[in-house]
Specification:
Number of strands: 16
Largest sheet: 8 strands, mixed
Helix content: 10-25%
CATH architecture of the largest domain: Roll
Strand order of the largest sheet: 2-3-4-1-5-8-7-6
CATH superfamily of the largest domain: 2,3-Dihydroxybiphenyl 1,2-Dioxygenase, domain 1
Number of domains: 2
CATH topology of the largest domain: 2,3-Dihydroxybiphenyl 1,2-Dioxygenase, domain 1
Structural class: alpha+beta
CATH class of the largest domain: Alpha Beta
Radius of gyration: 17 Å
Number of helices: 4
Order of helices and strands: EHEEEEHEEEEHEEEEHEEE
């Protein structure tokens, strides 16, 4: 990801947002975990705050409407130059549009889509707000990955939506594709087969950088969160899968960079 002063290439994940029931307790959790501070966001989005790290915006947290029983989940936003045109393309490629397109004040224009396998994502047309700043530091989102049963069909959806080049990871027992723009991997699709329970829909997973994955999972437990998969080593660093007190699942990673 680039700095917020630069416009992102269409299709690049540029922002992550979380809709919750308890905004105050959620801010306390992430503030204690990542050192985030908070500033009010666009009024058009209802109760909403932007999380800041050293005065740089890294994520958003909003209030779920009381009358809507929606899952509490981190949602990545993909950059677009035209949210309305992208919304039409979502429908054309076999997805649906659940929210918008709508203006978020002077910040930009957005929509929430559902892909061909049911995973929720956002699109963001930047005006004053370009997205995540200072990505790569501890406390910032560094990767977004779609968890699904198999990559082939949904990969076609995203390649229809944006001009991604799909680069498969060559492995007999690992169904994984990176979505690339201008020769750079910007997101991944992980086909996990029957490991994904039948009562769990495909979903996007956001990875946040941490200084120490093992210490972070201890802190997450202390703050009322849960460890879903213990820290383990991978080709991209030491990582763990966790959930916050409201059940929003995310991953932490110490990339060692």
């Amino acid at each position: 990801m680039t700095e917020s002063t630069a416009r992102h290439t269409p299709g690049t994940p540029c922002w992550v947002s979380l809709m919750v029931h308890g905004m105050a307790t959620t801010q306390e959790f992430y503030g204690a975990l990542f050192g985030w501070e908070f500033r009010p966001g666009p009024e058009q989005l209802g109760p909403y705050v932007r999380a800041l790290l050293d005065e740089q915006e890294v994520a958003g947290i909003g209030q779920l409407p009381r009358d809507r029983h929606l899952p509490v989940a981190w949602t990545p936003y993909l950059a677009t130059d035209n949210a309305d045109a992208t919304a039409e393309t979502i429908r054309h490629c076999g997805g649906t549009v659940g929210v918008g397109p709508l203006d978020a004040g002077e910040a930009g224009r957005m929509a929430i889509g559902v892909d061909s396998v049911g995973a929720v994502f956002g699109v963001w047309q930047a005006a004053e707000h370009h997205g995540v700043s200072g990505a790569g530091r501890p406390g910032t989102p560094v990767w977004n990955e779609l968890i699904t049963r198999e990559t082939a069909s949904v990969g076609k959806f995203y390649s229809c939506l944006f001009e991604y080049h799909e680069e498969p990871v060559v492995s007999a027992d690992f169904d994984y594709v990176t979505l690339q723009l201008d020769g750079r991997a910007v997101a991944g699709i992980h086909g996990v087969g029957e490991v994904l329970p039948r009562d769990h829909d495909p979903h996007w997973m956001t990875y946040f950088e941490v200084e120490d994955a093992d210490r972070a999972v201890v802190r997450i437990t202390e703050l009322g969160g849960h460890v879903l998969r213990a820290p383990r080593d991978s080709a991209h660093g030491r990582l763990a899968t966790v959930a916050d007190p409201e059940g929003a699942v995310f991953s932490i990673v110490h990339s060692g960079a």
